[in-house]
Amino acid sequence: MSKDDKATADVHTRLAHGGRDPRAQHGFVNPPVYHGSTVTFPDVETMLSGRQRYHYGRRGTPTTDALTGLLAELDGAAGVVLCPSGLSAISTALLSLASAGDHVLITDSAYGPTRHFADGVMKRMGISVDYYDPTIGAGIAALMRPNTRVVMTEAPGSQTFEMQDVPAVAAAARDHGAFTVMDNTWATPVYFRPLDHGVDVALMAATKYVVGHSDVMMGTVAANDRAWPLLKAFHGDSGLCCGPDDVNLALRGLRTMAVRLARHQESALAVAGWLETRPEVAKVLHPALPSHPGHALWRRDFSGASGLFSFVTREMPLKAVAAMLDGLAYFGLGYSWGGFESLAIVADPRKIRTATTWNEPGHLVRLHVGLEDPDDLIADLASGFDRMNAVREG
């Protein structure tokens, strides 16, 4: 089989075979983990010429190359860099492209820490930021200024799960000469490849589905040919790097990501469908459900869904929701997601929205459905609703 044949293989096959070369590592299936900072050179001429592949541990090792090479293949990217967290990936992507005096547009449904970084660090650096309705689509062209440099998307939106017309937003940004950045943590390149839809830079909190086991913090940023030189330069100049053991765990998790995602998707849809039948639930916010307002966009652009979604309760006291969640046996209360375990949080989008309003009278509960049996998770939630109703009726 030729290299071209391998490039067109199914994503499961590429995840199993990409980023490794057993023949180059004495036949071992997995690449070795290089613990190292210093790299030596055979002579002064080689040292000064820059022709040696590796120069210093922070600038890359065979271990980091294995992970970034596989990620670049998955995203169809010119290159990928690694960052020590998802938020670091976000800040790296934005600061690679925007400078003092530039204007940046960010979806109003973005991950909360993205907003805090933009409103704090970016504005302090002289970069102006505005937020836009995530459902604006091609209408974002009306918000462009002469100095608009970056448009940031996230689909679906964090916590509230609005779908965006990513190709339309990206086309409008490119017509204006701006870059498009997308947080693709929810879908991963297994279910959506942003660069194929006009996005210039796609990032993930690899802490979530790439690692998959809730034991490593990492972010990844992939760029097309247009944005790669800027991303590569900023990443190197800012001194960002990840430890070799974390990189190894991320690579290990990536091998099974597609298999895990399929299970997350199947179980989450089972739980979400059941929640739609509950009288305590006002609405379920899952793009793969036909009831979701962005379902048509999801069907058009995405090939799957992950395990993260939200639901909105009927109007009730917060203590009733707390009674439900506090007693759950299989859903932990935690702000992360993407691991093998199920999690839940209560959120209030009204605290951070500026371009849109959140007027739901009930409480927003976000669930991450892990790898447990969905029937057990449903039974756990059913018991939670019993506790909720006891408080409401008490």
- Numbering strands along the chain, what is their spatial order in the largest sheet? 1-7-6-5-4-2-3
CATH topology descriptor of the largest domain: Aspartate Aminotransferase, domain 2
Radius of gyration: 22 Å
The total count of strands amounts to 12
According to CATH, the homologous superfamily of the largest domain is: Type I PLP-dependent aspartate aminotransferase-like (Major domain)
Question: For the report, how would you describe the main beta sheet?
Answer: 7 strands, mixed
> How many domains make up the coordinates?
2
**Which geometry do the CA atoms define?**
globular
**Unreliable runs, pLDDT <50, ≥5 residues?**
none
Keywords: Lyase, Pyridoxal phosphate
Cofactor: pyridoxal 5'-phosphate
Family: Belongs to the trans-sulfuration enzymes family.
Protein name: Cystathionine beta-lyase
Could you explain the architecture of this structure?
By secondary structure, the chain is α/β, with parallel strands linked by helices. The protein has two domains: 3-255, Type I PLP-dependent aspartate aminotransferase-like (Major domain) (Aspartate Aminotransferase, domain 2, 3-Layer(aba) Sandwich); 258-393, Aspartate Aminotransferase, domain 1 (Alpha-Beta Complex). Helices cover 38% and strands 15% of the residues. It has 14 helices and twelve strands. The chain has helices spanning 3-7, 11-17, 44-49, 62-75, 86-97, 112-124, 166-176, 188-191, 228-237, 244-255, 257-275, 295-301, 318-326, 374-393, and strands at 79-83, 103-107, 128-132, 148-154, 179-183, 201-204, 219-223, 281-285, 308-313, 331-333, 342-347, 364-368. Strands 1-7-6-5-4-2-3 form a seven-stranded mixed beta sheet, sandwiched between helices. A five-stranded mixed beta sheet has the order 8-9-12-11-10, covered by helices on one side. Strand 4 (148-154), helix 7 (166-176) and strand 5 form a beta-alpha-beta unit. Helix 4 runs parallel beside helix 10, helix 5 (86-97) packs across helix 9 and helix 13 packs antiparallel against helix 14 (374-393). The longest helix is centred in the C-terminal third of the chain and has 20 residues, at 374-393. It is globular and about 80 Å long. The mean pLDDT is 95.
